[in-house]
Amino acid sequence: MTTPSDSLKLLVVDDHEAVLGGTVMTLEKAYPMATIRTASTVQSAQTELSYGTPDLLMMDLSIPIAPGETSEIEAGIELLRSLLERYPDLNIVVQSAHVRSLVRLKPAIDSHQAGFTIADKNLPMQEMLTKVDWALKGLIYTPRDMRAGIEVKPEWLEVLRLAFKEGLQDKAIAEEMNVAERTVRHYWTKVQDALEVYPEAGKNIRIQTEIQAREEGLID
Amino acid sequence: MPTSKAPSPNRPTAARATWQRQLFPGVTVIVLVVVLRLLGMLQAVEWEALDSFLRWRPAEPTDQRLLIVGINESDIQQVGTYPIPDAKLAALMTQLQKSEPRAIGLDVYRDFPVEPGYADLVEVFTQSPRVFGIDKITQEPVAPPPSLPPEQVGFNDFPLDRDGFVRRAFLGAFPPASHPDAEQFRLAFPLLLAEAYLADESLLLENGRRNPDNMRFGDTELIRFAAHTGGYVRADATGVQMLVNVRSGASPFEVVSMTDILTGQVDEALIRDRVVLIGITTPSIKDQFNTAATNAPTHPVVYGVEMHAHVTSQILSAVFDDRRLITTWPDGWEYLWIGVWGGMGMVLVRFVIKPAWYVLSVGLLGLGLVGLSLALLWLAGWWLPVIPALIAFTFNGLVLPGFYLYDQTLRSRIAERQRVIEETYDAIHNGPLQTLALLRRQQDTLSTQASEQLSNLNQELRTVYHRLQQESLATTDQLQLGSQQMVDLRNALHEVLYEVYNETLQRSFPGFDTLKFKVVKFEPLQESWLTAADRRSLCRLFEEMLCNVGKHAVGAKRLTIDCHTTDTENLIRVADNGKGNHPLSASEPQSSPAASSGGRGTQQAQDLAARLHGEFQRTFQKTGTVCEIRWPLKRPRSWWQVHIWWKH
User: Fold this and answer.
1) Quick check: B353 and B392 in contact, CB under 8 A?
2) 3-class DSSP state of B389
3) Do B430 and A150 touch (CB under 8 A)?
4) Is the pTM for the entire model greater than 0.80?
5) Are A97 and A61 in contact (CB under 8 A)?
6) β-pairing, B288-290 with B301-303?
7) Does B495 sit within 8 Å of A107, measured CB to CB?
8) Which residue in A177, B227, B273, B586 has its CB near the most CB atoms, within 10 A?
9) What average pLDDT does this structure show over B570-574?
10) Can you tell me the distance from the alpha carbon of B284 to that of A101, in angstroms, rounded to the nearest whole number?
11) B398 interface with A at CB cutoff 8 Å
């Protein structure tokens, strides 16, 4: 799982000293070569981002806007909303147990172009590292609570149809749909999240996706 | 999400609602003032304001073109009889003529001889073209002196306002139909004297150039009074009338007594080249008018001869000194002026926060309005609607803030309560829950039982939060869904709709059980002109669309939801591919708008669509059911309609 990269830049946003320390320590162990910066308020996070976009941003939802203020979930939601709007290519991991507060951002998350995963704070560190890894790979992971069953966007269905009924490759699909190939790859990760198909050792994820999609009736 | 925070850009509704809440009462006050004025209810106070302002002006110098010869109480005592005999008047005028005045106006009725000395008076009247007399043409007419040529007779009537005060003067008029010589247009006494004076300067009485209804001497047009001039409402503007701009100050004119003239005690300079008015100046003989506009010692009455002097003086000063006549604005400008001040009263509260400063600034601005109006009357002769503007301004400035304050207090109390709840939650979240999270990360080292209890504790704490959160939302900002879940309506509409979707789909309806997957598209909607009520209704409608799928769709495998904005309209569509066991499908198997046959829900949907100038449609087909509402992006209505809808 550890894919050390000498130029990896991570930004961790959390107002809780203890949690921040623990998270950073775990990340340092997993990514020894990475540069890890931290921020504890919305303002400092924005300042950090203005220095340059990191490879991954990991954030808590309950943070204060400025030092000395109380932490609010709303502040974190608003920060996340602006991040989704302004940095469509930023990989994001949200650490939170308040999945319900995130439901209304689902449309924006669905349009996000890069990795986006949600890690429950209560889960062991190993789980968190998996979510970090997925996000770095551009994958999408949202907990089941955030979805009302299987939920897809029209363009994702089109990708499935072109791939599994027409047998096209990503490049051809991109041409057919008049989008970038990168976007098509991104649609794949979205639909895989919807079908709850996640990377597993020794399994071909595309085939897993096809099996699941047929089972659920997304392709006839 | 404390409401005390400034609303973020994606929450325009709350700010707009507040603005409308303040706009409506303020505009009502302005409209009310305008209506009261149009009904004439403010006429009396506007008159009084005009009188007071005229009186408050600084004193003007004594008029050098007029002389009043007052027949006062001691004159009458000395003569020993009243009316003053013709001989006395003839002697007085003969004496005056020695000093060559430009005109002598005798403001004393001589419709019949008062012996002794009638012959003397007839001689003066017939020999002197510069002697003018009076008659009275309205109410109970009084005939002119029989021996005086008609062109030397002016009528001495004044038009009276409903409160009995003089603020206008006749310049000329046709006598009433009952008058023996009703067909002959007559000039008023003071105008006749001015005309005689001006004739020596070759300035003749002509029709106006700017307005042919006005009378004109040279370049000076005497502004004709109309029924709605200034503060007047449906006044009697018969004949040619003019607002009287009295000469301010305690001694506007030189006044001497009859005895002074007869005994030769008056300097010739006071008579030469002047208009000399002769009239009664004793309260024992009732020749007086009510006027509150002068600073005369007899305030609030002046002698008739003084009133005439004011009018003659006003005309002469206008011609020679460019002294201002009283000018008014066209009605439209007057109401705009009232509206502007009413509007200032409304917005002032936004600029001044501290209550003490606020009252002070309302007071200062009100005084400023009065001062400005006074200055404009004094310097430019403008009579502005100061009272209606002052009412609109102070009412909006002082009474409405109290009204808002009550509203505000109520709101801030709710907001305060909400803040406490949120802080309580944040405290729980930032303290115990974080510690708990750290503990649970080490669950490997804990016993299964302890781990499970920690998990329960975690769940319990979160339950407390959810209950608090649901209670804390103000009722206008939240929508309770069928699932009992609360949705915060202040967020962007497509996000709120997503929440509604997410919640509703978790309810147990037979139609949802068969669903294999959903194809959803929630994109930002153009919602800048939607009211809070519209948003609420749209969410309700959307919830109902989804519930209908859950209740009526049979064997639907796919649910398609489309919510987006095109170049011209917004669209919310819910479609399923079930067999459609909808209530209407039996009777109307083909596609049809469910306008007439729909139930209460459909009717509400139609109403909402009509309100948004859009369209609601439900179509049943073999391949499934489609239900949609679409409405245009542009707002096709005016603000006051919005308010009515917003209220409801």
Assistant:
1) no
2) helix
3) no
4) no
5) no
6) antiparallel
7) yes
8) A177
9) 92
10) 92
11) no
